[in-house]
Design goal:
The protein is elongated. It contains 13 helices and 13 strands. Helix 4 runs parallel beside helix 9 and helix 5 packs parallel to helix 7. The longest helix is centred in the last third of the chain and has 44 residues, at 332-375. It folds into 5 domains: 34-129, Nucleic acid-binding proteins (OB fold (Dihydrolipoamide Acetyltransferase, E2P), Beta Barrel), CATH 2.40.50.140; 135-289, Succinyl-CoA synthetase domains (Rossmann fold, 3-Layer(aba) Sandwich), CATH 3.40.50; 291-325; 344-374; 379-420, no CATH class. The chain starts with 35 loop residues before the first helix and ends in an 8-residue tail after the last strand. Helices cover 41% and strands 20% of the residues. A 5-stranded mixed barrel has the order 1-2-3-5-4. It is of the alpha/beta class and 428 residues long. The protein has helices spanning 36-48, 88-91, 131-148, 175-187, 205-217, 234-237, 243-251, 268-272, 280-287, 291-324, 327-330, 332-375, 377-382, and strands at residues 53-64, 68-74, 81-87, 103-113, 118-128, 166-170, 193-197, 224-229, 256-260, 275-276, 387-389, 407-412, 415-420.
Length: 428
């Protein structure tokens, strides 16, 4: 048996046995790895099984050579790119030459170069996205978003009358930024801006504008956000019709003003914004009030209030003068004098009425007194008659009521007498 030497994979005089390669990538180990060539061939075999695909993007880098062109195709919404190779016979089918910034649709297939380990896309057909097709796509997107309610006026927020701080999203040192700040400051010198610069065209525009929008929307001191850009071609303004940006503006809790391009430009951002300004200058005029107009309005309001107060005081003074001019206020004792006379007349009438009643009552009393006197027993006594009464006061009408020896009282007209009965006999 051959002697083994420490540190060597086999024994002296023998070739080490090589383990079989792993069948799949998951079976590889540090002790049994794949060679680079095997991995590269397997990747190429996997990629070669892919079918061709139509892909849309924007050309950001272009290198034309005699037989082929090499370009970088960038996604229109995200920062993702792919290298594409186009043979001359395919490139020459285009009606207009390719240029950086062109928007194209490519039928391509992935291709993996073994020698350099590079993945590229091989183009078999290429077509430029024309203006008509772009407009048709925008109209289709407009209808879809409108059907979802993103353009509903009921969702639009009312702009604050005087925002504390205005968020401004625009290009770095752009004319739009200068126009908004200068014109807004002329109208309201104390206005404050929180400026966030972002790309306003090209492939970086959408993600940068969305990021700036979300940053300003999260700032509690920002009461209003303006997205502004100067004029440009339809292709330059395409980022402001991007679906992701439109949805981000719809989701913002802070009111958003769109100030893109000129009066004729109508990106989808104008439809979803809470207010559409025709230009950045127009936006500056609509987001803050004019201090001179407000001062004039205050002066007019004060003048109007002064006039109203003057008219009211004049009317009240005139009414007070009319009241003071009435006889009852001009000579108040007249009212008392007339009432005194009325009271005297009433007292006289009352006295006469009471005197008449007393006189008539006195006459009636005298008449009754005469009748009473005529019927009184005293009149009879005055004619010489007398009334005999027993001790208990009973009038004696018969001799049988008394007996000899009884004491009786004899009442006459001018007094009474005490007597004793000596005899009691019937009348003869």
């Amino acid at each position: 048996m051959a002697e083994r030497i420490t540190g060597t994979p086999g024994t002296l005089g023998e070739q080490p046995e090589q383990a079989p390669l792993a069948a799949t990538a998951a079976e590889t180990t540090p002790e049994n790895p794949w060679p680079v060539s095997l991995l590269a061939h397997k990747m190429k075999a996997y990629i070669d099984r892919m079918s061709t695909v139509w892909v849309e993007g924007q050309v950001i880098e272009l290198s034309n050579r005699a037989k082929a062109s090499y370009l970088t195709l960038h996604d229109t919404t995200e920062d993702i790119s792919l290298p594409v190779q186009i043979w001359g016979n395919v490139r020459d089918r285009l009606d207009t030459p390719l240029s950086e910034g062109s928007r194209v649709v490519v039928r391509a297939k992935a291709n993996y170069w073994l020698a350099k380990g590079r993945l590229t896309m091989q183009a078999y057909d290429i077509r430029a996205v024309g203006l008509g097709e772009l407009l048709a796509r925008l109209e289709q997107l407009r209808q879809m978003l409108a059907a979802e309610g993103l353009f509903d006026p009921a969702h639009k927020q009312r702009l604050p009358f005087l925002p504390h701080r205005i968020g401004l999203i625009t290009g770095h040192d752009s004319d739009a930024q200068k126009d908004v700040i200068r014109n807004a400051s002329l109208r309201w010198p104390a206005v404050e801006f929180a400026v966030r610069n972002a790309a306003t065209q090209g492939t970086q525009a959408v993600p940068q504008v969305i990021e700036a929008l979300r940053t300003l929307d999260a700032d509690p001191e920002v009461d209003l956000i303006v997205i502004a850009r100067g004029g440009g071609s339809l292709e330059d303004l395409l980022p402001f019709s991007n679906e992701a940006l439109v949805r981000a503006v719809y989701a913002a809790s802070t009111p958003v003003v769109s100030a893109i391009g000129h009066e004729a430009d109508r990106p989808l951002l104008d439809e979803v914004a809470d207010l559409r300004a025709s230009t950045p200058t127009d936006a500056a005029k609509r987001i803050v009030p004019d201090v001179a107009e407000e001062q004039m309005g205050i002066l007019q309001a004060r003048a109007s209030l002064d006039g109203i107060l003057d008219r009211m005081l004049t009317a009240e003074a005139r009414a007070l003068a009319d009241v003071r001019g009435r006889p009852v206020l001009a000579n108040p004792e007249t009212m008392l004098t007339s009432r005194k006379q009325d009271v005297g007349a009433l007292r006289g009438r009352a006295w006469q009425a009471q005197s008449g009643l007393v006189t008539r009552a006195a006459a009636e009393i005298e008449h009754l007194r005469t009748q009473v006197r005529s019927l009184s027993p005293l009149n009879t006594l005055a004619r010489g008659y007398a009334v005999v009464q027993t001790e208990d006061g009973t009038a004696v009408r018969s001799h049988e009521q008394v007996a000899p020896g009884d004491a009786v009282t004899i009442r006459v007209a001018a007094g009474r007498l005490r007597a004793t009965v000596e005899e009691s006999a019937p009348a003869r």
